[in-house]
Design goal:
It holds the Pfam family Ureidogly_lyase. The structure is a single chain. This protein has one helix at 13-16, and strands at residues 9-10, 20-23, 29-33, 38-42, 54-62, 70-76, 82-86, 92-97, 109-113, 118-121, 126-127, 131-132, 137-145, 152-160. The chain is an all-beta fold and 163 residues long. The strands form 4 sheets. Strands 1, 8, 9, 11 and 12 form a 5-stranded mixed sheet that branches. The longest helix is centred in the first third of the chain and has 4 residues, at 13-16. It binds (2S)-(carbamoylamino)(hydroxy)ethanoic acid (UGC) and nickel (II) ion. Residues 75, 77, 82, 127, 129 line the site of nickel (II) ion (NI).
């Protein structure tokens, strides 16, 4: 059965809660620090490196995929979380799905994130690799380095994103 096209929806903490955390200043616990010269938006997400893992920071230089955007697979990192924070203020897309051994394509959701929103996928969250719109966009990525297999992929009939 083919799945209807995905329509991007706004990224909110509530809507994303079962997939992980949204990294954004709005609504965060805020602390005035550095003698009033900085605001600390505190504990926006929990980076989980998993067993025998360490947290590493990387930069992804992501380039646009051909249009129309089709989702033909999802991946997950069963051992650890993975966070993406855009380094430029441009909207980007986050695609996730539900499922245990494999994602259910009927549960796919597409979120349109602003350039001031990042996500931290919880361990095991089915997601599509980082998706940018129109031009190259760089991201700071916090995820795991360590032993073990931390990537599962599942393929299915392509689902289109209706931009
Ligand atoms: N391959 C890689 O590190 N990136 C993916 O995990 C991703 O979610 O973009
Ligand atoms: Ni990933």
């Amino acid at each position: 059965m083919s799945v209807r096209p995905l329509r991007p929806e706004p990224l909110t903490r509530a809507a994303f809660a079962s997939f992980g955390q949204v990294i954004e200043a709005e609504g965060a616990e805020t602390r005035v620090v550095n003698g009033g010269h900085a605001l600390r938006r505190h504990a926006l997400a929990a980076v989980e490196p998993g067993p025998d893992g360490r947290v590493i920071l990387s930069i992804f230089e992501a380039t646009p995929r051909p249009l129309p955007l089709v989702i033909h697979m999802l991946e997950r990192h069963p051992l650890a979380s993975q966070a993406f924070m855009p380094l430029s203020d441009r909207d980007w897309l986050v695609v996730v799905g539900e499922g245990d051994a494999a994602p259910d394509p009927a549960t796919l959701r597409c979120f349109r994130a602003t350039g001031r929103q990042g996500v931290n996928y919880r361990p095991g969250c089915w997601h599509f690799p980082v998706l940018v719109l129109g031009e190259r966009q760089d991201f700071l990525v916090a995820d795991r380095d360590g032993p073990g297999a931390n990537l599962d992929e599942a393929f299915f009939e392509a689902v289109t994103i209706a931009l």
